[in-house]
Design goal:
Layout (H helix, E strand, L loop, with lengths): L9 H17 L11 H7 L3 E4 L5 E4 L1 H6 L2 H6 L4 E4 L4 E4 L1
Antiparallel strand pairs: 1-2, 3-4
Length: about 90
């Protein structure tokens, strides 16, 4: 799915992602979708594929992405930094 939550309000974004996750878990299926919503992906996805700045693809769980520093490295900058305690991108 390409950006399935792009034009939805917050409540419907969360409902959609939960519906997709529940469908995948309940039916032993994988659901692959692209999103620019990093917070949503970190909170609701089982695994992440992250296109890195050098063009390579990183693959792992949200916890691994945070713990390994991939999130901090790839998404910090331009006035943002990843705050490990908050588990979120924050303004610098």
């Amino acid at each position: 799915l390409d950006e399935p939550t792009a034009h939805l309000d917050l409540i419907h974004r969360v409902r959609t992602v939960r519906l997709l996750r529940d469908h995948a878990h309940g039916n032993a299926r994988a659901v692959l979708f692209s999103t620019h919503d990093l917070r949503m992906a970190l909170r609701h996805c089982d695994r992440l594929l992250i296109t890195r700045c050098d063009g390579s693809i990183w693959n792992g769980t949200p916890a691994q992405a945070i713990d390994s520093g991939v999130i901090a490295t790839e998404f910090s900058g331009e006035g943002l930094r990843f705050d490990l305690e908050a588990g979120d991108l924050l303004p610098e």
